[in-house]
Design brief:
alpha/beta; Aspartate Aminotransferase, domain 1; 4-stranded antiparallel β-sheet; binds pyridoxal-5'-phosphate; 351 residues
Length: 351
């Protein structure tokens, strides 16, 4: 019985082709801008996302922080949905390191934020009583909302409102390629209207390390200065960029497979008595469901699942998250379903 690891797509390992490319990568000192592999990755990412320039960073968290540092001064305000990864899962870095306060827009578990909500939450920069809104953060796909996608039209509507008030829009596109594949639109349509966007190489794209931030030349120049300040200037980072280039070439189209398997997983889970889930709401590779409190508290359920060698994560309260990725086959999903159903039955019997 093998462990089925559904905690996150971050557990994916580099492919053989990536490892070969990493070993053979041409490298230089990237702090001097002299790493040809990094430069190629940055140019390719910027061109795919329809922006002028790109910057390789250590992580999605670092890319998000660099955007905040670039747009904001201490005491400014940033606005995002109350399910945003930047709010929940980045250690409070926006407050601790950028000195900004975060204003949250209520979001339902399945809902994005819309242009009207954004308009109501942008605050005057002229009034000394209020913090000035400098940045709106969007997330696509939305991690804590079961990997929900934002469409190009929804994205543009928010951007129009923000830009009308002189506020920048940062897109946390950790899984933007999942959104592009799910919507069957070129990724540039999802990133064109925002001022900058980041995406993760180290999630479903299977790279070992890294994220790329794209934006205007001026924005990227300033973000690179902040990257150096927070200790993210890396030297022969071309070994990492080489894997990124392989990922952009070979790992994007296959995401459709992860989405199909997630959908199948969701349908199976929805049929288990004690689990609540709307399988039709699953659009990409993230499946979040509620476990009935009468079955178990979520942390106990997760422990029981781990004993059955199915690893899952725990976004909060009674919810449980499963993420499909390159190492999860359709057969693994079926096996995970049968183990889950057995765990639920055993927990119910033990009450
Ligand atoms: C994973 C994730 C990040 C952060 O990426 P790390 O590389 O883990 O720092 C940011 N935003 C979203 C939506 C994510 O899912």
């Amino acid at each position: 019985m093998a462990i089925i690891d559904l905690r996150s797509d971050t557990v994916t390992k580099p492919t053989d082709e990536m490892r070969r490319a990493m070993a053979a990568a041409e490298v230089g000192d990237d702090v001097y801008g002299e790493d040809p592999s990094v430069n190629e990755l940055q140019e390719q990412a910027a061109s795919m996302l329809g922006h002028e320039a790109g910057l390789l960073t250590a992580s999605g968290t670092m890319s998000n922080l660099l955007a905040t540092l670039t747009y904001c001064n201490h005491g400014d305000e940033i606005v995002m949905g109350d399910q945003a990864h930047m709010f929940w899962n980045e250690g409070g870095g926006q407050a601790a390191l950028a000195g900004v306060q975060t204003r949250l827009i209520p979001q339902s578990a399945s809902g994005g934020i819309n242009a009207g909500d954004v308009a109501r939450n942008i605050r005057s920069t002229g009034n000394p009583h209020v913090a000035a809104t400098k940045m709106i953060c969007l997330e696509n796909t939305q991690n804590r909302c079961s990997g929900m996608v934002m469409t190009p039209a929804e994205t543009k509507a928010v951007c129009d409102v923000a830009h009308g008030s002189g506020v920048a829009v940062h897109l946390d596109g950790a899984r933007i390629f999942n959104a592009s594949v799910a919507l069957e639109v070129p990724v540039a349509e999802l990133t064109r209207d925002v001022d900058d966007a980041s995406f993760c190489l180290s999630k479903a794209l299977s790279c070992p390390v890294g994220s790329v931030l794209v934006g205007s030349k001026e924005f990227i120049k300033e973000a690179a200065r902040w990257r150096k300040m927070v200790g993210g200037g890396m030297r022969q980072a071309g070994v990492l960029a080489a894997a990124g280039l392989v990922a952009l070439d070979t790992m994007v189209d296959r995401l459709a497979e992860d989405h199909q398997i997630a959908r199948r997983l969701a349908e199976g889970l929805a049929n288990i008595d004690g689990i609540t889930l709307d399988a039709d709401s699953i659009q990409t590779n993230i499946v979040i469901f509620d476990i009935d409190e009468k079955v178990a508290k979520a942390p106990d359920f997760i422990k029981a699942m781990a004993s059955a060698e199915v690893l899952v994560s725990y976004p909060g309260e009674q919810s449980v998250r499963m993420v499909t990725h390159r190492h999860i086959s359709a057969d693994d999903a079926e096996e995970a379903l049968s183990r889950t159903s057995k765990v639920v039955r055993e927990l119910q019997a033990a009450r």
